[in-house]
Amino acid sequence: MNIAMVGAEFQRTARLARSYWLEYISDLVLYTLGFLLLIAVFRAASASYGPQGYLSTLIGYTTWKICASVLVDIARIASEEAHTGTLEQLFLSNLNPGLVFLGRSLGIVVNHGVRGAILALILASILGVFQPVTLPAILVFALTLAGAGGLGFALAGLALVYKRIGGTLQLLWQMLVFFTGALAPIQNIYLDALSKTLPLTWGIICLRELIINKATITTLWQNGILIRLLINTAFYLFIGGVLFTWGQRKARELGVLAHY
Amino acid sequence: MNLRNQIAVRVAQLVKSYKPDSPNAVDGISFEIESGTVFGLLGPNGAGKTTTIKMILGLVLPTNGNVQLAGFDVAKDRNKALRHAGAILEGSRNVYWRLSARANLEYFGALRGMRGKSLADRITQVLDTVQLSDRSNEEVRYLSRGMQQKVALATAILHEPDVLLLDEPTLGLDVQASRTIEHVIRKFVEEQGKAVLLTTHQMDLAERLSDRIFVIHKGKKVEEGETGDVIARFGGQRETMEIQLAAIADKNILDPILNNFPGLSTASEGDKTVLTWMDTGSQKEFLDLLNLLDANNFTILHAGRRAATLEEVFLNLTSEKSEPPK
Questions:
Q1: Is A164 exposed, middle or buried (0-12, 13-18, 19+ CB in 10 A)?
Q2: How far is it, in rounded angstroms, from Cα A55 to Cα B167?
C-alpha cells in the first residue's frame, strides 16, 4: 500500500460522500434522536441515572456506531462491489487485493470516524457531558476499531465466496449494540461471557475507565483490561487476515469474484 | 515496454473445471497473441470466452495449464503481469457510477501507481482519445451506455498497458460509440504496436478488427488461424448465394418455398428481404428457386454469388452438428 493509493481512497470517499449527503444527514438525525430517546427511557427506568450515566452510554453508543459501521461497511462493500463489477477492477490493479481493501478500509474509517465524531459532539453538547479527547482514549479507540476492522475483513472474505451476507451483518449489528455492553451493563453470566469474546466490549470498558474514571494507560495495563483488549484485537486481526486471504483465493478458484 | 513482434499472451493447455461432475468450462486450449495484433476469441454463449479472459488476468484460477502475460507467469507473478494489462469485463460496470469519468480515472490511475502531472496529462489524453473531454466531470451514472463504456475503455488504457483484453466491449452500444471504440482499438494496435484480445458476438466487428481468430465451443478449440484464411478455408468450400427481394416478404407465402430448399435462411434488411443460401445445391436448384420466387410475384432485386462472411463461417463452425473435437 502506498500513500498515493490511500490518498486516492480518501479522495474517492470524500467524492462519494458528496453524492450521498442526504443519506448522511438522515443518518445523523436518526441516531441523534435514537440516542435521546434511549436516554429518556433510561431516566424513566432509574432515578439515579444522571450525567455520568449519559456519558457512559454515550461512550458505548458512539464506539458502537463508528466501529460497527466500519465493520459492516468493509464486509458490505466486498459484496456490493462484486455485484456491481468494480471488485474485479480492484483485483486488476497490480497491488495485492488485501492492500487495496486495507486502503479502502481506511477510507471507510475516515468516513464513519468523521460522522461518528459529529454525532458524539452534538449529543455531548445537548446533554452537557462534553469531555476532551485524550491521546490514550484515541489509542484505545484505534485498537477497538482495528479489532472491528479485523472482523470486517473476515466477513468480507466470506462475502467474496458466499455473497449474501446481509442477514449476518444485520444480526451482527444488533449483537454488537446489545451484547457488548455498549448501552447498558450485561447482567446474565452467559451473555457476559459471550460479550467478552466480541470486538468492541473491551474497548468500551477501557474507554469508560479512561474517560469517566480518569484511569491511566498504566492502570488499564495493570488491571489487565488493556491486555485483554490487545488480545481481542490481535485475534480478530488474525482471523480477518486468514479469512480474507482464503476468501479471495477461493472466489478466484470458484470464479465468483463478480457473481452475486 | 514495447513488445512489438513479441508474444504478448501465451496460453498453454488451459483447463477450468468449476464442478468435478460437469464438463470443463475451458478444456485444454492453447494460443499465442503477438504484439501489434488483434486476436478475436469467438464462441457462442457459454463457450468459455469470459472464463479464458479471466484466467489470463488471474481473476479465475485455472485448474490446469499456464498463462504468460507480457512474459510473466500469471500464477507466480500476477502483480507484475497485471502492470502490462488493461481490461473491460463483460456485464460489469467496470467503473464507479457515482464518480465522474475524471474522478474514476484519477482513482484507478492512483491504484496503478500513477500520480501528479503525468497522471493529469495522461487523463486529458485518454479522455480526448475516447472523445469524452467535454463530459468528463459528469457522474458516470448520468452518461449514456456508450459513454459509460468509453469511460471503462479510458480506464483500461490509462496506464498504457501492452495488452488489452476486451470482453464484449461494444455490447448494447449504438453505431457511433461502437465506431469510437473500434477506432481506439485500431490506434492501440496499429500505432502503438500493442496486443488486443477481443471477444464479441458482432461478427462484422470481429472480421474488421481481428488479425487472427480463435473459435471456441464448449470449452474446446474448434478452429484457429488468420481471419482471412479461416473464412477462405471454411467459407470457400461453400457456394454462398444471396437473393435480395424488393419488399418484406409475406411469410405465409415464403415459408413453404424455403422448406423445399434446405440451408436457405431469410432475414429482413430495412424494407427488403434477403435470402442466404450457404449449402447451395446445384445450379438447377438455384434456378428452380428463382423461378418459384418469380412465380409467387416476388420482385428479385439482386441474385448472385458472394464470399462467405465470418458470421456464416462462425455459425457453421459452432453449430450443434459440428461438435468440437474430442
A1: exposed
A2: 56
Burial class of residue B160, CB neighbours in 10 A (0-12, 13-18, 19+): middle
Give the Cα separation of A117 and A251 in Å (integer): 36
Question: A46 and chain B: CB distance < 8 Å anywhere?
Answer: no
C-alpha dihedral, B178 to B183 to B186 to B190, nearest 10°: 180
Contacts of B62 in chain A (CB under 8 A): none
List pLDDT tens digits, range B278-319. Answer: 655 677 888 888 888 888 888 888 888 777 788 878 887 887
**At a CB cut-off of 8 Å and minimum separation 6, what does A240 contact?**
A149, A150, A151, A152, A153, A154, A157
Model ipTM? 0.81
pTM: 0.81
Bridge partner residues of B33 (DSSP): B9
Contact A19 B57 (CB under 8 A): no
Nearest C-alpha neighbor of B111 from the set A160, A9, A109: A9
Using an 8 Å CB-CB cutoff, list chain A residues near B80.
Answer: 94
Contact: A252, B95; criterion CB under 8 Å: no
Say if the Cβ atoms of A92 and B87 lie within 8 Å. Answer: yes
What contacts 24+ positions apart, CB below 8 Å, involve A186-195?
none
